[in-house]
What we know:
- The protein is of the alpha/beta class.
- It has helices spanning 13-23, 73-78, 80-83, 101-107, 123-127, 153-165, 167-177, 183-197, and strands at 2-6, 32-37, 41-43, 49-51, 54-55, 64-67, 94-98, 138-141, 144-147, 198-199.
- Strand 8 and strand 9 form a beta hairpin.
Amino acid sequence: MQVAVVTFDGFNELDSFIASALINRCRQGGLEAFITTPTPVVTSMNGVEVTGQRPLEFVPEADVVLIGSGVKARHVVADDQLISRLPLDPSRQLIGAQCSGALVLARLGLLDGLPACTDMKSRPFVEAFDVTVLDAPFHAEGNIATAGGCLASQYLATWVITRMLGEDAARDVIGYVAPVGENRETVERAMRAVHAGEVALH
């Protein structure tokens, strides 16, 4: 089971790295995340250069695709050629977006009729796509999820791990990385956010 953490130039380190690091604690369970980039090297919003682990062409192969955020998200959605390299399929892939990554899902038409979570700065731009933005850190319907706020990336990872490997696996990962002495409350907060944000589809 492979996860593409799509990471554009100008990316937010917290969004891409927290999600990928948490998911990669599940390698023994068969779940692995890869920083997936449109160019061989991308530079973060703070000047950190990162070599991608997979090219954008990996996206169609992935079982899960997470769209990270960054300061150039509006440039990404305005680039038709770049957007065309993201053939996402919610019928067979779990698809998530972090903060301004919701702009990419909106641009692809994947949020039509769905509310979404995003960060405060991105909110007006997501709303410009006629998407209702929730005052919540996480929301999921079916195979599409969005998270708002950098540290909500742990909720996106929790959702992915829960959907792919089960709740026990997610609890183990969050419990391991939680601040010492705050393990139980950190796990319960993450699970509560995911359960509260998930809409059952019948």
